Amino acid sequence: MLDRRSFLGSVAGAALLARTGRTTPAARPAALPARAVQGDDEAYWRTLRREFLIPADEAFFNTGTLGSPPRAVVQAVGDSVTQIAATIAHWDYKAGHPDYITGYEPEVGLRTKLAALIGATVDEVALTQNATAGMNYVANGLPLEPGHEVILTDQEHPGGRMGWELKSKRYGIYVKQVTVPIPPQNPQQLIDLYVNASTPQTRVWAIPHLTSALAVRFPVAAMCQVARQMGIFTTIDGAQCSGHLPLDMKALGCDAYFSSPHKWLLAPAGCGFLYVNGQQLPALWATLASATWDNYRAGAFRLMQIGTGNLSLLKGYEAAIDFHNAIGPARVEARIMALADRLRAGLQEIPQATIHSPTHPELTSGTVVWSLAGYTGEQLMDGLWTRARIRCRSMGDPWGVRQCCHIYTLADDVDRTLQTAREMARTTR
Ligand SMILES: Cc1ncc(COP(=O)(O)O)c(C=O)c1O
Question: Ligand 1 in contact with 212 (CB < 6 A)?
Fold first, then answer.
């Protein structure tokens, strides 16, 4: 277990690395088997909380929209912006001089770290702006013919769906939507939805790893295994998952996976990735074309042909991975799940509260969607903020609010939520 000094040492190291541009192997993840919020653990997380810029009296629970990067990440971006602005005249364009932009180089250092984090090879990982870009690269790039079917759910975020809709209108593929039960009772129910909807024309299963609005966690590994046996391509919308759940592409067995590390991985806004299994990569057409669009020896760099991009953002992206690794993905997940379990258990004790996200242990995550009788989603969101400085996001009615527990959440913040919910429940009577 890391104490404050060694943790801060590693974070300071990450910031230094971001400044110098040098990279070292990521810190080894520290496993945390138990899901309980332990006493000594709380002290560790309290210390860690000081690494975030969110004021101490505010509790932020909307990581599902955008995370709050830690100090080391903010500093890495700021330092890089300053350094580039100040020394731009030194950039002589000669071979060997570091570029001041991104978009034309394969960014092997960052992609190597990212690949290690998600259990992929560097050639299989493309840096993108976000999950939406990844979804579009897959939908646009896969060679499908009129009549071919793509199966997805009725709970897709537009950033997981619309590339398929576009392809349907333009090229005549058929997008088939399955209805997710609210809440689903077990993982098999979700597998059956896709299996039962499939026909000989089905070519793609587009699966949300964790849905945006109601936080349903899909049994991705089991579904990819079934799809593989049926000869169906799997593409996973993991926008909500990097930095939230430990990821291993080979264990998941998917063909493509895209995410937005500016959410749970706490990278700066505008940091995404797309993974494509090396066996499938040659079949995928590029969507944006610049110098290297058709160099098939370049791996997923072929899918990074964006023109001039923001190098400083990538410095923050790398610092976010270093920060995450310094804690350890398994420990992050255990903490997030322990807090969300605490929240779920507390809400179940409040008769006026209803949990709309799943409660089956294999379908849960760090996100809890819940409502309070007598309050609209917006009223509940506003009540939590004005009474207790707790920032959740309204999901509309009847779903109430979405509350994402993360490493900047303290057990006290969860308890304050429950206390405020009890007070609000009493007020409406
Ligand atoms: C499941 C899911 N997919 C896709 C997206 C789109 O993410 P981005 O806007 O970062 O591309 C989101 C955003 O909340 C999401 O929750």
Answer: yes
The residue among 250, 188, 248 whose CA lies nearest residue 223 is 188
Assign domain 331-428 to a CATH class. Answer: alpha beta
In whole angstroms, what is the distance from residue 151 CA to residue 168 CA? 12
Instruction: Please check whether residue 260 is in contact with residue 157, taking contact to mean a CB–CB distance below 8 angstroms.
Output: no
pLDDT digit string, tens, across residues 139-173? 999 999 999 999 999 999 999 999 999 999 999 99
Please work out whether the CB of residue 134 comes within 6 Å of at least one atom of ligand 1: no
Residue corresponding to tokens 């990521």:
26
Helix (H, G, I), strand (E, B) or coil at 167: helix
Alpha-helix runs per DSSP H in 349-402:
377-388
Question: What tens digit of pLDDT does each residue of 33-82 get?
Answer: 334 455 458 999 999 999 999 999 999 999 999 999 999 999 999 999 99
* Domain boundaries of the chain, sorted by first residue: 108-319, 331-428
Classify 309 in phi/psi space as left (phi over 0), alpha (psi -120 to 50) or beta. Answer: beta
CA pair distance 396, 398, nearest whole angstrom:
6
Mutate to test the pocket of ligand 1, among 135, 240, 264 (most ligand atoms within 8 A of CB): 240
Testing ligand 1's pocket by substitution, the residue of 63, 132, 214 carrying the most ligand atoms inside 8 A of its CB is 132
Domains 108-319 and 331-428 share a fold: no
CATH 3.10.450.10 matches 108-319: no
